[in-house]
Amino acid sequence: MSSLLNELDVLSAEALAEAETLADTEALEAFRLKYLGRKDGRLTKVLSALPTLSGDEKREVGKRANALKGAIESSLARRRQALDDARITSELLKSKIDLSLPGTPVMRGGLHPLTRVMEEITDVFVRLGFSVAEGPEVETDDNNFTSLNHPPDHPARDAHDTFYLKDHVDDKGRPLLLRTHTSPVQIRYMRSHTPPVYIVAPGRVFRHENVDATHSYVFHQVEGLAVDTDISVADLKGVLTLFAERLFGGQGTVVKTRFRPSFFPFVEPGLEMDISCTICGQKGCRVCKGTGWVEMLGSGLVHPNVLRAAGCDPEKYSGWAFGIGVERVAMFKYGVDDMRLFYENDLRFLGNFS
Amino acid sequence: MKISFLWLKEFVDFTQTPVEIAALLLRQGFEVASVTPVGGSVTGVVVAQVESAQKHPNADKLKVCEVFDGVARHTVVCGAPNVEAGKKYPFARLGATLPDGLVIEKRPLRGVESHGMLCSARELGLGADHSGLYSLPSDVVVGQNIVETLALNDVILEIEVTPNRPDVLSHWGVAREVAAGLGKKCKIPTVDLPAVPVRSSLVRVDEPALCDRYVARALEGVSVKASPLSLRLRLERCGIRSINNVVDVTNYVLLEYGHPLHSFDRARLAGRTVGVRKGRPGEKLECLDAVTRDVNDILVIADANGPVAAAGVMGGQSSAVGDATVELLLESARFLPSQVRQARGRLGLSTESSYRFERGTDFDMADIASRRAASLILSLAGGRLVEQEDVHGSVAARPAVRVSLEKLQKLLGLAVTGAEARAALESLDFKCEETAGELRVTPPIHRADVREMADVVEEVARRIGYDRIPGRVRGAALGGAPVSVLRSLIVRGRERLIGLGFWEAAQSGLVPRSLWDRLVGPGGENPPELLNPLSLTGECLNPSLLMNLLACAAGNVRRGNPNVRLFESARVFHRGAGGVDEADHLAWVAVGQDGPDHWKFHSRPLEIWDARGWAKSILKDWRLTGVRFEAGRFSFLHPAQSQSILMGDHVLGYYGRLHPRQAEAWELPADTFVGELNLSLAVTGKRLDVKHVPLSRQPALVRDFSLVFPETVTWSAVVFWIHRACEWVEGVDLFDVFTGQGLAVGTRSLGFRVTFRHPDRTVTDGEAHALHERVLTGLGKEFSAHLRAPVAPA
What we know:
The complex is a heterodimer of chains A (354) and B (794).
Chain A: H1 2-19, H2 25-36, H3 42-48, H4 55-93, H5 113-127, E1 131-132, E2 138-139, H6 141-144, E3 164-169, E4 175-178, H7 184-192, E5 197-206, E6 218-228, H8 233-248, E7 257-262, E8 267-276, E9 293-302, H9 304-309, E10 318-325, H10 326-334, H11 341-344, H12 347-350
Parallel strand pairs in A: 1-5
Antiparallel strand pairs in A: 2-4, 3-4, 5-6, 6-10, 7-8, 8-9, 9-10
Helix pairs in contact in A: 1-4, 2-4, 5-10
Chain B: E1 2-4, H1 5-9, H2 18-27, E2 31-37, E3 43-55, E4 63-68, E5 73-78, E6 88-97, E7 107-109, E8 112-114, E9 117-118, H3 146-149, E10 155-160, H4 171-182, E11 203-205, E12 211-220, H5 229-237, H6 245-257, E13 262-265, E14 274-278, E15 284-286, E16 292-294, E17 299-303, E18 306-310, E19 314-315, E20 328-335, H7 337-347, H8 352-359, H9 363-381, E21 384-392, E22 401-404, H10 405-412, H11 418-426, E23 431-435, E24 438-442, H12 453-464, H13 485-499, E25 503-504, E26 510-511, H14 513-520, E27 540-541, H15 546-558, E28 564-576, E29 579-591, H16 608-622, E30 627-631, E31 637-647, E32 650-658, H17 660-665, E33 672-678, H18 679-682, E34 701-710, H19 715-725, E35 729-738, E36 747-756, H20 765-783, E37 786-787
Parallel strand pairs in B: 11-14, 25-28
Antiparallel strand pairs in B: 1-10, 2-10, 3-4, 3-6, 4-5, 6-9, 7-8, 12-20, 12-21, 13-20, 14-17, 15-16, 17-18, 18-19, 22-24, 23-24, 26-27, 28-29, 29-33, 30-31, 31-32, 32-33, 34-36, 34-37, 35-36
Helix pairs in contact in B: 5-6, 6-9, 7-8, 11-12, 13-16, 19-20
């Protein structure tokens, strides 16, 4: 009996090792015949000797021989599958193509960079609970100037070279004009809403000036206004600093703000906000003119005369406001060096922003 | 405004550098655009006189000069064309260093040893002039260090003064801010003038409301000549050309004290006196710039014969101070800002004077500046003061501004103490009294801009610095308004077009009338126009977004991009009943192929069906109801390949192929398609709610038809009929349109598939048969349609 069991051990070792070397279907068939062939298969022979054995021996050898048979069959099946896979793969590879060729073009356009920036700015404030307000582009002298504390003949009007309309006058007989800033929306909104007022007003504005790399007779602004019972410079600083961080920060870029006194007739005190130059990390570069700071927006506490003109009692309410130039932000954010590019609508330029 | 650093130092003692002073001014609200040293770093250069200049024995273009530098004589070889015996020049002694790093050494030039160098302006770091030596006037002292003579160590600060602060438009004014920032006091020059009779005959003010003070001083025996070098340099470095010692003094005092003055040649004033009045019809004035201007209704200074100066703007030629002048009438007045502003606008002349008068001058300063100028003239031009007159109204004392400390703290968001606030204000020469939590603040006379509490709040903030105020973030009160319908339509329209391959454009909103005429033909609607257009803007407010889009598309085609898809959402303008009507529009233009050339999938030219698809897609996304399409009614569109889009009785927009004539005019290819929708009208429409329709689990019954129709039958009529006439129709899809061979003239064949689906059960064979028959016979009856041929199974 031990000789038969020894033979099974040898058979098992040899057969399983040989199975792994089978390279094609012919070899597979030869192998099957060699071990499991009906007449001369080596395992068949062992099995055919079983009847000559006694009970215990018969059980033991039978069990081992059948197990080996199963193992050889599954080896064969596995091998057959592997060979088949290899064949299909080599078949498929015959049609190999150059996958560096261009894929099907996807026709998708994109937003204008000024729209993108305007929406980004607006979104920061909307998330803080501000509402979006809009106003007309054709305005009255009163809404654009006088109510905003630019009385007639005030030198501050010099900063606003203005386009006037032919044939159209306001109720005081003064020509209508193209708004020179988005600030008239402050007046319009306050006249029709009672505080608390928290708004942002994006829009297009016009100045009667010639065009060069940094000036345009048309540009965009976003105006912000908060009027409530206890608004202070601290609110202005807090919210505008948060705004600067969200608009220009992120991905490891830290943004600092600096507030300094300035003058805009519709605010008092008036503040200019500078942000740390994120282009050079305040080391000094062409964009920040070596100062490490970039002028970003004008702001301040709403002038009592503006509150009065808009029907708000300055004894009861105070407010802060800001105005930011969208082109300036886009130029800074995207490194655009010529404002005219925004209005040429060259597809190569527009394609940079999607 | 240009400020000389050395001049500034005459008013305040400090050791800070120009850059530090610039930073201080920035913190206090004044941007400094530039800080520019006037010269380079120079040592060992002195004033020297050339005693003789002989031709060099070995060189035609060189001279051998004997030069005296106050200590010794030196032989110097010089190649400058303007070297002249007797003249004074900057002289670099041996060992001197020049701004470019050059060290002067003894060296032979063509055989003659040169002991030093005479210098040009450029060699001293004074600009680019290298055409010859820097010629010094005869009154400079030989041997003086040139750094002192030419104030080479001065630095010019270019300061931007905001329009609310005319009090800072001078060296004294800037000095006050610097002094406040440094905790110091300003030093003001003292002026001693001899006592002279006060006359009441020098000046007559007819318009006291427009001129509330006129200080006149008369001088005799002055000798008009060039100003000393130091004074000329100061004026020139601050941007004012030197004229003569008298005119220069008035400009010097303007730069120093900020108050504009004018000097008349009194001998040339008819009647030897002046009056302040309005110009009369027909009156003209030849101004100092030699241009004659109409001064009717403008405030003028006049003598017995007529206007001699435009008040606060510019003097006249007839009484100008020149070399022959010996008698002066020195004017120091105060004119109403709005008057000067209007005059400046009408005369088209902006001057240093008008700039300051427009922003406001200080009542007291009129006399202070006059005294300073008179005393400087006496010292520079000699002569004597003979009479003076001060015509003025009364100045109402301004009431103190009352500031509650609590309110100050509340507005700043900082618990500033009364003592701190007082210290801040007092540093700026404000007077403060504090009682029971209230400050009574009296601003100095030069601070006319401080009128109410908010102004005082700013002064306190400016002095304590905004850095000290902590930021505070409180979200807005809950209840932000919802996104407006207009906004949401714009956003959805934009998204839809971007998905269709369109790029958003931006345009100015202004357009030349010629482009509008090109689009709609002459005699079309008149859009609103500008009173003062620029040459590049065009004179009309844009009545349609199309013109600029077509122009931009053509620009892209010209630049080599044949396939262009652009859109824009912006305002358009029309003349309305009550003024200008503004509406938000969305417009698009597409040119060329349906995609870029691809190596495998070939592109095809765009067709009207693309344009129709885009328009339908946007409208579907907006879910507007009651929208219908009609035959095109716009002349700039192809009459057959365009439609108007209507909502109710209003034209909501259009889409279509650009008219071939238009395509040619805009230099665009024939395959140009456009569309435009009025968003402001669309928001007034009724929009369908988004609703889920339950899905039927039943199998669909599909039937294909190929029927011949008279050509006059539209596809939409067929679809409409099928939906109306048959039950359970899920969809009607067109797959073939055919005309021509085998079909009668005037007919076309339409191949389409109708999908039926019952919500709850399978459609039985009998029902299917009946539906099929109903379509066939119904369309036959309704539209005279008949079977073309059986459609081959797919």
